[in-house]
Amino acid sequence: MTRNLPATLALATLLLGCGFLAPLPPSSPLGPVAAEAAVSKSLSGGGGGSGNVAGAGDRLGALLSGWAVPVLTVLAGCLLIGALASRNIGASFGILVITLIGLIFLLAPQSIESLAKGIANTVF
To answer: Could you say which of 6, 17, 77, 118 is the most buried, measured as most Cβ atoms within 10 Å of its Cβ?
Structure first.
């Protein structure tokens, strides 16, 4: 039992390290093309508050969704490893269910909307 926890932590660290070494997709907001585009947009605005704020909420939502998915996945993975290391199957199942629901909300909000409308139409 004393060797299982360090081995689990070493495996989790190895898997997380492999994820950081993976190449970024071309459409990633962290790539060099996006950074150059952001600088050119900023420079062409002229300063003095002449920026375009149309759709700022949509852009903020996309930005938060882009960061929330990896953060939620890593957090759930760490909690799941801890729950499985302590052999708590109920907590492990709860972490999985809550994580899946959260990821569905972040990755496919239109499916959640259609599900809610279907339930509302059935009930009311």
So the answer is: 77
Among 14, 76, 80, 87, which residue's Cα sits nearest to residue 6? 14
| Angle between helix 89-107 and helix 109-123 axes, rounded to 10 deg | 100
Spell 5-39 as b/e; 16+ CB within 10 A means b.
Answer: eeeeeeebeeeeeeeeeeeeeeeeeeeeeeeeeee
**Tens digit of pLDDT for each residue in 45-66?**
554 455 667 777 777 777 777 7
Rounded to whole angstroms, the Cα distance separating 29 from 24 reads 9
**Residue of 68, 77, 74 lying closest to 106 (CA atoms):** 68
DSSP letter at 80? H
Are the beta carbons of 65 and 106 closer than 8 angstroms? yes
Q: Residue ranges per domain, the chain? A: 1-19+56-124
pLDDT of residue 37: 54
Higher pLDDT, 104 or 26: 104
